[in-house]
Each structure stands twice: as structure tokens, then as C-alpha cells.
Design goal:
The chain is mainly alpha-helical. It has eight helices and no strands. The protein has one domain: Up-down Bundle (Four Helix Bundle (Hemerythrin (Met), subunit A)), CATH 1.20.120.680.
């Protein structure tokens, strides 16, 4: 499990030139980092100085913390799913029968492979919502951390969108391919919103 690896160990595997892990798993790790940063920033927005918002801050910290293992689980899911896709492409294709069987296995694997990035996009939307709420009353000292979280969530959404695009290009079932348009549009909106809120926070930091 990726959650049990060291950061260095995962990055070494990522860089190894093998089919897995790949961009989808890396995007999920970005989401986990984003959620962790939101939780940290919320935990720094507690105590007497922030008494009026402490209940909300603790709720945000808890919800964001819950997204960490969910994101890491999606990294594992993505790695397993793409491993199945890669294995399917290695099936024999000499005869027409083999090619037909291979094509069916590939399509089945691709249908499963789109699940992790679709779920990841949903998680990045949750991170954005928590970051947006927290930014309204957060400890000024952690504005940069919230901005960093939003940039990580933005990267995660972009990675998930790219993964979906790659899968969609190889899916021959038009109906299934069509179901990916909505998640891709959601990812685009999340990317734009994360960037906009991050810029607002950077402006606040510059203005003191």
C-alpha cells in the first residue's frame, strides 16, 4: 500500500520507468497533501484568539483529515487499475480470436480504470470547499498553507483530468466515454476555482 511506503520509496518507484505507479497515483498523492495542509491550517485556527470560529475550524480539520486516507486509497486503486490495463495490452494478438479477446479485456480494464480519477475529482472538490470556507476566517499565519493546499488540489484535479482524457481516448464504447465529459468539466471548474482562491490569498499576504 502506498500509505505504508516512505515518500522516497514511492518517488523511486514513480521514477523507475515502469507502467505503475503513474500520473493518476501521483495526482491522488497531491490530493492527500492538499487535505493534510487544510487540516493543519484549520488546527492552527483554534484557541482563544479564534474562539468565534473554533468549532468550524475543528470540523474542517476533521473533514480534511478524513480525506487523506481516502486520497491515498485512490492512489492504490489507480495503480492497480492501470496495472490491469497494462497487462491487457500485453495479451497475444496474433489471431483474430486473440485480438477480439484482447480488445474485450482492454475495454473492461479501461472501464475500471476511470473510476479512481472520477472519485479523485470529487475529493478535490471537497478540498476546495473546505479551503474556501476556512479562508474566510483562518489564522493569517496559515494563509500561505491554504494557498499551497489549493495549488496541490488544483494539480490533483488536473492530473485526474489528464488520466481521464487518456482513458477516454482508448474507450470504444461511446456511451461510457460520454460519461466522462461531466467529470472532466468538473475538474476544469475546480482547477479554475482553486487558482482564483489561491491568488486571492496571495494578494492578502502581499497586502498584509
Amino acid at each position: 500500500m502506498i500509505s505504508e511506503e516512505t515518500i522516497g520509496g514511492f518517488l523511486e518507484r514513480l521514477a523507475a520507468g515502469k507502467a505503475t505507479p503513474g500520473g493518476g497515483a501521483a495526482a491522488a498523492i497531491q490530493a492527500a497533501q492538499a487535505a493534510a495542509l487544510i487540516s493543519m491550517a484549520a488546527n492552527f485556527t483554534t484557541g482563544p484568539r479564534f474562539a468565534d470560529h473554533e468549532r468550524d475550524a475543528r470540523r474542517i480539520a476533521r473533514l480534511a483529515s478524513d480525506l487523506i486516507p481516502q486520497s491515498l486509497a485512490l492512489a492504490d486503486d489507480d495503480e492497480r487499475a492501470f496495472a490491469r490495463v497494462a497487462s491487457a495490452y500485453e495479451l497475444p494478438k496474433e489471431s483474430e480470436t486473440e485480438r477480439g479477446a484482447r480488445s474485450g479485456v482492454i475495454q473492461d480494464a479501461l472501464r475500471e480504470a476511470v473510476r479512481p480519477p472520477k472519485k479523485l475529482i470529487q475529493i478535490t472538490r471537497s478540498i476546495l470547499a473546505l479551503g474556501e470556507e476556512l479562508a474566510g476566517f483562518a489564522n493569517p499565519d496559515v494563509r500561505s498553507d491554504i494557498a499551497a493546499a489549493l495549488e496541490a488540489a488544483r494539480s490533483a484535479a488536473a492530473g485526474a483530468r489528464a488520466t481521464l482524457a487518456a482513458d477516454r481516448a482508448d474507450i470504444t464504447d461511446g456511451k461510457i466515454a460520454g460519461t466522462l465529459q461531466g467529470p472532466a468539466a468538473d475538474a476544469e471548474e475546480i482547477i479554475e476555482s482553486c487558482g482564483r482562491l489561491s491568488e486571492q490569498l496571495r494578494t492578502q499576504i502581499r497586502e498584509g
